[in-house]
Amino acid sequence: MVIATTKIQYKILLSIILIAGLLLTLFTSQWYWLNKGKSDISIQSEKQINELVLFIDQQLAQFEIIPEVIASNPILQQGLLAAKDPHKIAQLNAYLSELQQVTESSDIYLTDALGVAIAASNWDKKNTFINQDYSFRPYFIEALSGRAGRYYAVGTSSDKRGFYFSNPVFHNGVVLGVIVVKVDIGVLEQQSTGIAIAGQYEFMISDPDDIIFLSSINHWRFSSLSPLSQAKRYALNTSKRYATRPISELAIKPPYNTLTEANLHTYQITSSSGTETYLEKRQLMPNANWTLHVLAPMKPLYQSLPTIMLLAASLYLLLVLFILYAIERRKNLRRMLHAHNLLEQRVKERTLELEKANTKLKDTQDELVQAAKLTVIGSLSASINHELNQPLAALRSYAQNTQTFLGRDMFDDAKNNLKIMIELTDRLADIIAQFKSFTRKSQGKDNAIEINQAIDQALTIVQPEIDKQGVILSKSVLKGQCQIWGDTVRLQQVLVNIISNAIVAMQQSSVKELKITASKAARSNKLIISIKDTGPGVREGQMSKIFEPYFTTNERQGLGLGLSISQRIIESMQGKITVENDNQAGAIFKISLPIYLYEDIKP
């Protein structure tokens, strides 16, 4: 009972630890992913805001020099000095209209020293600037004091957003009037919006009063980032900067703070389409006195958060499972260690038994190979006796003749007979040595075998039987040097066995021809030895069984092991032995072996 209670307490404690670890993993993953995402967005926003500032400055800079160039033209001075002359004013209007088309600006107009426009590029339009008073505009006040001016505002006549560049027109050091070039920032807004869409972010530009006048989102335009107090509304109405456009407050949380030192903030902006969270990065544009805000949407980051937390939870659970598995595995290893030691002892004992069995099996295989050799020698014994008896009979005859020659003092004839007797003795020694080599047990050592020599040695064994049976032998071997790697004695046994079988198969044939060829395969590094006879061939039913142990087509002699042993010998030399019937008569045995060394003799 106490043990069961302890196990339950252990499981409860383990569950609490695992749950706490999971919660900590989820919290850490969320914190890390959000901070990393914000850092990545901040780096990207830094690049984006620099690119956008550079683009806007370049677009505005191309118009900045235009008022100064125009102000130097004497036609403006003449027009200001003769403001009552309709002809002069008409020329001035035509000139400003032509300049407006060339510079692709929105409007160009000239005011006198009181701020009243006397000529304009839109002189022929319904909402012409002529006779309009612009003395209240800061860009006029700045130019009247003798300096170039710039200002953003909504036109009181055209009701279009524009950026104004102004320059004084001097005559004898006195400011006669002000030339103004208005740039339509609606086009600039469209181009900037295209850049923002490509970068997958939003942007807005605010003036020193925190009023948004340029934005990639329409309903943000003409909204105030900061609260609109009564004093601020009065100041906006007095400046007429936004003409009659209504200004509203942007629904932004937390409240927009222009005094903070940090330039990276997270805001929630609410509109009719819903609430979106943005990471805002801002930068002051000193030339235009604007503040550019780049707002990267946080929605993609938040949408990826569940996947990241799920992945973190999965990794945590996998780690827990791995730890539990490792603990359990260690326990199992301890339990299995004793069993392993016992099993290892049994394996050693069993291995010794298998080694003894393998040694016995190898000895048995060697005995079978030797028995197969002796069987072949037994079947050739009559021919061997004939091959040995011929030299022996000749030796006896030459010995008797030599005896006679010596009795008659015919020493030269006796000397010739002795020479022939020595040659006959050498021949007997070669025959006996070849048979001795064939019948000895193989040492199992592989070496390089000259194939032509191996074929000749095998033919030496069966030559007596070939002569006895009246077999016509034709041999075609390689002219160059060709070596294979293997056991010389065992290869010789295979050749003798197949040739002997061919001679036996042709015993009842009217035509007895044995053809042995050795050639190199055309498309591979293989040696092909072909042994063809003119016997009855192999019946189709026996073709698949011919290399099986104890299968024989001649029940009166042999154990049926010759071809089976031959097949194993060839396979041990990485080769292959096959049999097929000739189209005319007889069987063809083919032995394929990898070539170790080949040197062809070029003609």
Describe this structure in words.
InterPro entries: dCache_1 (IPR033479), HATPase_C_sf (IPR036890), HATPase_dom (IPR003594), His_kinase_dom (IPR005467), HisK_dim/P_dom (IPR003661), HisK_dim/P_sf (IPR036097), Sensor-like_sf (IPR029151), Sig_transdc_His_kin-like_C (IPR004358). This is histidine kinase. The protein has helices at about 1-65, 65-70, 75-80, 85-105, 140-145, 185-200, 230-240, 300-380, 380-405, 410-440, 450-470, 490-505, 540-545, 560-570; strands at about 105-110, 115-120, 150-155, 160-170, 175-185, 200-205, 210-215, 225, 250, 250-255, 265-270, 275-285, 290-295, 445-450, 470-475, 480-485, 515-520, 525-530, 575-580, 585-600. With about 600 residues, it is an alpha+beta fold. The strands form three sheets. The protein has an eight-stranded mixed β-sheet. Strands 14, 15, 16, 17, 18, 19 and 20 form a seven-stranded mixed β-sheet that branches. Strands 2-1-5-4-3 form a five-stranded antiparallel β-sheet, sandwiched between helices.
Shape: elongated
Spatial strand arrangement across the major sheet:
9-8-7-6-13-12-11-10
Give the termini separation: 100 Å
Helix content range:
40-55%
Beta content comes to: 15-25%
